[in-house]
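Our preliminary data section would be incomplete without showing what the modeling component actually yields. Below, a chain of 105 amino acids is followed by its predicted structure, encoded as tokens that our downstream tools consume directly.
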Amino acid sequence: MHVTLAGVVLIGFCLLGLTRFQLETNPEHLWVGPSSRAAQDKANYEASFGPFYRVSQLILSTTLQSQSKYISTSGLPAIVTDDNILLLFQMQAKVDALRGEQLVS
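Predicted structure:
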């Protein structure tokens, strides 16, 4: 009986920490402290040039009007086809070929 009561008290004490629990969904705050050099550099960059957006995902979709000989289980034309994969590789090659001016001060 004493062991069970002590276990319940210990678990209850540990669960008190959940009252301060906050879920962080911003990856920048997960990896970099707000007063770190990287955070300060990013804030200075964004103040000078505007926000920097990083694309982390590409969402593909299809419509009923798409002309594809492949039909998915939902009845819509399939997204992953040979033509679409080739198109994505062509788009990636164009993005890789982009070059910007390098300013020297």
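Helices lie at 2-15, 27-31, 37-49, 82-97. Residues 89 and 95 are 10 Å apart (CA to CA). Preliminary results of this kind motivate Aim 1 of the renewal.
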